[in-house]
Sequence to fold (433 residues):
Amino acid sequence: MDDVTVFCADQRSVTALVQTCEDFGRALGAKVNCRKSEAMLFGEWHLASSAHFPFTVKPDFIQILGVWFGKEGAALKSWQDRLGKINSKIGLWSSRKLSIEGKALVLRSEVLPVLQYTAQAWPAHTTVCKAITQTVFCFIWGKMGRLKRTVIYKEPRKGGKGIPDIPTLLRASFACVSVQRTLVEKTGSAGRSMSHLFLMPLWRQLGWDKWDSSIPYNGNAPWFYGDVVRFVREHQLEGLKPDLWKPKTIYKLIRAKDLTELVPGLPAATAETVWTNVASKRLTNGHKDLSWMAIKGGLYLRSFMHARNLCTTRYCPRCPYVEETSLHVFWQCPFAQGLLDALEHELRDSVPRSCLSYHSVLYGLFPGTHDMEAIQEAWRLVNCFKDAVWLARNRLVINRENMSVRDSRRFIKSLLRDYSILDSLAVDEEEEE
Fold:
């Protein structure tokens, strides 16, 4: 064993603990270094009169398996340590050029487990949740946010990006620990008895527990147990069975209540089809992000920047007195139309150039009776087109470099070759399986 925590009620228990460790050492040839072992005292302990207390006494806080316990402020101290660790992790990942989906993966695999571990012992206070949220969105957007936070929490098929709502997951983790201990664990366990002492009056408010005067309880519960009840009521989880109280299950139920984001100018029934197209597995993460941002209005267009007083004009750099919007950049602009005309040969094998509309370019909605494979190929080609248009626009605005239609077409062909390589690798993997 490495780390062991023992609760002793008196000096006699301490002496018995030391003797047990010595017997263990004689049997296995190991030895416990008592001076490196730490103890925290609660209540009255007369150490001055006792020469048999071998452990180092910690006056304020003691760390057990990476979590601080002790006097008031232990929870905040634990969370400050965790926030420092995730800031270091995010700082390392921020130096890489990641897509939004790549950043979501980093948050799920690198950041969330570090925080959930602490959330099982100490609930995240409101100030801690705010600090975590600010760190997460600085990682996603940088210094300036582009879209509402509630939007990107939603699943991709509902118009979001699947960014984990970490504060909600942390609250769910602590709530699940509390529910499991009091309603699922067997009677007599130490964790259940301690939780039941405070939670029994709160569970009665939810109709989960019946009055039993034989079980001790405390009506003055700590703030975090009250937060568990608020969490249950806030997300309407009163009728959920106790055995379903698991963080992932709770979070899925919460996210299932999210409404699908509407697409301006399209009926509500078509929105889910649009978001399914945007999140297609046949697209790279970069193209998914570009299509999503073009629809949601999160690209750094001049109309976007001018509305935030970050740009002196809202007009297209190629078309004077025409507002630069996603519709204009990717469809109405003469440069976009000229590039689409240059791609007539590539489009011929899937969806003809004459069948394209701005619904096809922005949303992946192709009119006619084309088969699904042709539509998928056309949608992939259209996203390569948008990537080229956006690159040409940025070079013109930032570097004052005028990228020609011919160069853009060559760039699109290189993107299509990359897709071809990815498809061949996917086929090889399937054959090996």
About this structure: The chain has 18 helices and four strands. The first strand starts at residue 38 and ends at 39. The chain has a mean pLDDT of 88. Residues 268-432 form one domain.
